[in-house]
Write a structure and sequence with these properties.
Order of helices and strands: HHHH
Helix content: over 70%
Radius of gyration: 15 Å
Shape: elongated
Strand content: under 5%
Distance between the termini: 7 Å
Length: 122
């Protein structure tokens, strides 16, 4: 995996988590600009998915196994859209809190992806 891309996705996810966490703290639901932030984070995750699949197609192998690696890639790509839809159903501060929690999960998944790939040595 490309370490800079992994770091960029993790940092963007943590920024989204902070932003939505602050909205929850202020008793606000997710708003349009939060969804724009979710779109940016999701776009980065989709780029990461494509890069991961291309590396696998080239014959590169993750240390932790291909099935586990692909599962994490798909989980990362689906994480923020899933909580974004959930926040639409919950139009209170808890919708923002849900997105914040999902974004933190996404950042943690980045660490796990890095480990499964081989700590950047793959």
């Amino acid at each position: 995996m490309l370490t800079p891309l992994t770091v960029a996705v993790a940092v963007a996810a943590l920024a989204l988590a902070s932003w939505c966490g602050f909205a929850a703290y202020r008793d606000q639901p997710t708003k349009d600009w939060h969804f724009a932030g979710m779109a940016v984070v999701t776009a980065l995750a989709l780029v990461q998915l494509v890069v991961g699949v291309v590396q696998l197609a080239r014959g590169e192998k993750p240390d932790g196994g291909t099935v586990v690696f692909v599962s994490y890639l798909l989980g990362v790509a689906a994480c923020v859209p899933a909580v974004g839809f959930m926040s639409l159903a919950e139009r209170t501060r808890w919708g923002s809190a849900t997105v914040a929690a999902g974004a933190v999960v996404m950042a943690v998944l980045q660490v796990r992806l890095y480990d499964v790939w081989g700590g950047g040595h793959g």
